[in-house]
């Protein structure tokens, strides 16, 4: 199982709460605006250090509260995680020790979130899909976070040199390390896409969603396939200097998605939502098999986002998985679940 205790204080309109969730499906029902999504937001904030609903965490803090706090305990490992956020910043604790590294919280609380904005994974910019790949790699490859941080630093250094109109000898000194970092990032992502594709195929078959055909994934490296990145960096230096940034590399990579040869971005909004669900459940499946800690699955308002057949398929799938899921809806669960009612910010078991 995952969490067996959750405490939330000072989050949006929620009254202070203490929850003892079940190891399986936890269903939070109540009217719109009752505070259901805020529960998922609090868990996400604890795991990722930010809200999925607002770019400014300060907006998550309750109007009359000085700070918000979220504390949880994993039932399988006993790890206790807590964060406090106020106008001046945040403080974190793990098992009684101070911790200011979001990566440690993410490692102890892996999760997958499906919410009404998840279709942006399909029709949003390439950066969303790169982030989608990188978060999985953070969890399943212990060395990836350091490699990603190192490459990000090398990219900043090269961009700074370009903006400063640095001479070729400076770029000649920077680029070998940049290329080695790019190779590590690109290879890890490409291998992940191969592993993820197998889970996508399995999950799509299990769900039986109505899509034009099998969903295919392809990693594009961020530079033309018929060119070497080292050659491009040298050949394009003048143009990179003019623009002040590096135009080729894994920071410009893309995860290309298609069904029966048709790009997913060109499909209907309803089909994009279904594709996003398949991708995210495949992500959960990969995380569940790639580490010892069981991930959580947060699903916000699937009743309004999916039609009856697709909702039934999703709930049936969840019922067969050994996953702790947190689901919000305006109606009661049509399947067996641990029920909570949410109204005016108060949460009560049913």
From TrEMBL:
Highest taxon above the source species: Bacteria
GO molecular function: ATP binding; single-stranded DNA binding
Keyword Amino-acid biosynthesis: no
A GO cellular-component term linked to this record: cytoplasm
Subcellular location per the Swiss-Prot or TrEMBL entry: Cytoplasm
Transmembrane helix keyword on record: no
GO BP: DNA replication; DNA synthesis involved in DNA repair; double-strand break repair; SOS response
Domain RecF/RecN/SMC N-terminal: start-end pairs: 3-332
Residues holding ATP: 30-37
PROSITE patterns, A to Z: RECF_1
Primary residence: cytoplasm
A Pfam cross-reference name: SMC_N
Keywords, comma-separated and alphabetical: ATP-binding, Cytoplasm, DNA damage, DNA repair, DNA replication, DNA-binding, Nucleotide-binding, SOS response
Family to which the UniProt record says this protein belongs: Belongs to the RecF family.
Role this protein plays: The RecF protein is involved in DNA metabolism; it is required for DNA replication and normal SOS inducibility. RecF binds preferentially to single-stranded, linear DNA. It also seems to bind ATP.
Protein name: DNA replication and repair protein RecF
Lineage: Bacteria, Pseudomonadati, Pseudomonadota, Gammaproteobacteria, Chromatiales
